[in-house]
TrEMBL record:
The keyword Cell cycle does not apply. GO terms for molecular function: heme binding; iron ion binding; monooxygenase activity; oxidoreductase activity, acting on paired donors, with incorporation or reduction of molecular oxygen. PROSITE patterns: CYTOCHROME_P450. The keyword Metal-binding applies. This is Cytochrome P450 E-class group I.
Length: 146
């Protein structure tokens, strides 16, 4: 149970985030720019510094929470880790894993859909079956050259 709570949730969140970054190249560019402006090597990337980056935070939390977002929502209704004594024990770890993975990913690699139009047309749905069954996403990966 602990391994499902700790890995399926985070890997699903990361898969969905990466799909939407690939589907929205401007968002990917903004995130990449924020990471590359703040770190000059992959080794320098650390969670303490990542916590101060607003765009990375918005990518993880959904953009709609940026102060200048045109979508007005009540943040109090947003509770992906639940509330109260049985809320998620791994919340901080999940943010750390997601922040470090995304930052290192965009710093080191250039990702794109192998077939952009097909992906956009098909969309991305996660099927809930106790653990999430995710569709496969063919992606082209190139190493970033300085
Ligand atoms: C994006 C990532 C994650 C999300 C969205 C998430 C979400 C949640 C939610 C909504 C609950 C409450 C479930 C309920 O009320 O039945 C929960 C519980 C829990 N989560 Fe997470 N979680 C995430 C990552 C993690 C990680 C990384 C760990 C551990 C390393 C973890 C460990 C747990 C545990 C042990 C519980 C049960 C707490 C209890 O019942 O006292 N979670 N999580």
């Amino acid at each position: 149970m602990y391994s499902v709570a700790g890995s399926d949730t985070t890997s699903t969140a990361l898969t969905v985030i990466i799909w939407h970054l690939l589907a929205n190249p401007k968002t990917m560019q903004k995130l990449t720019a924020e990471i590359c402006e703040n770190f000059n090597s992959a080794e320098a990337i650390n969670y303490q510094a990542l916590r101060a980056l607003p765009y990375l935070h918005a990518v993880i939390e959904e953009e709609r929470w940026l102060p200048n977002s045109s979508i007005k929502c009540d943040k109090a209704a947003f509770s992906p880790f639940s509330y109260g004594p049985r809320s998620c024990l791994g919340r901080n770890m999940a943010y750390m894993e997601m922040s470090l993975t995304l930052a290192l990913l965009v710093f080191r690699l250039k990702l794109s859909f192998a077939n952009h139009d097909n992906e956009i047309q098909a969309g991305f749905d996660v099927e809930d079956a106790f653990v999430a069954i995710k569709p496969s996403v063919p992606v082209t990966v190139k190493k970033v050259t300085a």
